[in-house]
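Hi F.,

I've been meaning to write this up properly since the lab meeting, where we talked about keeping a consistent format for the predictions we share between groups. The idea is simple: the sequence comes first, exactly as it goes in, then the structure tokens exactly as they come out, then a line or two of notes. No screenshots and no reformatting. I'm using this chain as the first example so we have something concrete to point to.
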Amino acid sequence: MTVSGGIALAFMVIGLLATVFALVIVFRRSSAGTVKAPAGSPPASVATSASAVGAAGAVSTEAAVREADEIRTRAESEAASIVSRAQEAADQAAQGRREVEDEIRAVKDEIRELRSDLERRETRLADREQRLDKELHRLEDRSAELDERHGGLDRRAAELSRQDEERKAVLERVAGLTAVQAKTELVSVIENQAKREAILIIRDIEHQARSEGEKRARKVVSLAIQRVATEQTSESVVSVLHLPGDEMKGRIIGREGRNIRAFESVTGVNLIIDDTPEAVLLSCFDPVRREIARLTLERLVLDGRIHPQRIEEAYERGKAEIEQLCVRSGEDALVELGITGMHAELVSLLGRLRYRTSYGQNVLKHLVESAHIAGMMGSELGMDAGLLKRCTVLHDIGKALTHEVEGSHALIGAEIARRYGEPDDVVHAIEAHHNEVEARTVEAVLTQAADAISGGRPGARRESLESYVRRLERLEQIASAHEGVEKVFAMQAGREIRVMVKPDSIDDIQAQVIARDIAKQVEEELTYPGQIRITVVRESRAMEFAR
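Output, unedited:
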């Protein structure tokens, strides 16, 4: 039976029940409405009552029919509602059935895929197991072959050992050496071989370290050295003052030379008056004192009044002016570098280096240049550029007092910096920049590097002819003192030594050792700007004449 047939049957049953229910109600009301007449009434009253009862029954029947219709209508409405709910329930049941069927179908598909995947995996595992079995058989065969070879090698080794023992016995019998003597010679041979191998390893390690170090440092150093450069200053111990006329020389000398004696006594500078037209020379090793004397004499010549009292007044004014210039120069250098918080005495000493030179390079400009280089290298390496600039700008501060205090300028500068409250890293960088104290911090090493870059760049420094010749001669003497050296040439203004060795007595390893020894001796004995390259040349030439 379908769902629609069941709904129609339910509708018919509900209609029949409604009709029966209406009829029952009508019969009950009609039986209740019938009234019996009292005893002894006349027959006319009975007839009238009967007609009245019939009319009332008709009215009641109509009312019952209407009520039955209403009941049937309500029953039909309720039946329709029931049918609608039944239809919805049927639709929901059908929807649920379809969903269950879909889920069952999906589960079946998934089970089918899992079964297929499982079959594929089983197939792959079977293939892999088969390959592993083949590989295991191959390895077993290989192991057996290796065992056989190993046995053969053992037999061969035993045979070689026996033959070696026989050869040793024959050699001992032929050479007539005891076991101790043979052992000594063997140790000597092994020692020489080990030394050669050690030198080769050292050379390779040095070459590798130098190559890697150059690659890592080239960027930092090239960026720093290419961005700063200062001009070269002439190194001299005399100053020339031009005069308006030669008659001024007599006024400078004074009566019986009292003016010149007073000038030299007050200023501490030698005044040289010769036949040079309209010029006098001021000679002194202290550049600050020489500059004060030059300024004093210039004021006296412009004023025209030259006598001892006037000389003293001009000297005091010139001294005060030079001191102010020194302070201003030190402050300008610190402002250029962005350094603050330095003691006033250190600023004054830094400014005094404006009048000092080293190998023709102005010391104050060298300090500023070195500080810039150190700051750039520190920035590239992620360090404190301000601290590095402070270390480098003060590393030659001791040169301002070198002639006044005994000792090297590095140790003097470190003591001055310590006295005026500079940090320990700054003090250590100052005292270690010439390796008089072992460098223990990165700041000290970078200070040394910046100092060497500034002083070693081409054109930064120059030296006098006498010291230049002496340095070249000493370089050649150091190189010539080594055994096996045939010729020595100092080249490129003493920046390279080319050593020619005898190829019959010196091999390649010994040539490398000679180059290292010469470099070490030059570092220990000589003072020079920049670096010196030592090149050892060993060559063999074969010559024959065709006649």
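Notes:
The first helix runs from residue 3 to 32.
Confidence is low (pLDDT under 50) at residues 33-50, 229-235.

If this format works for you, I'll send the rest the same way.

G.
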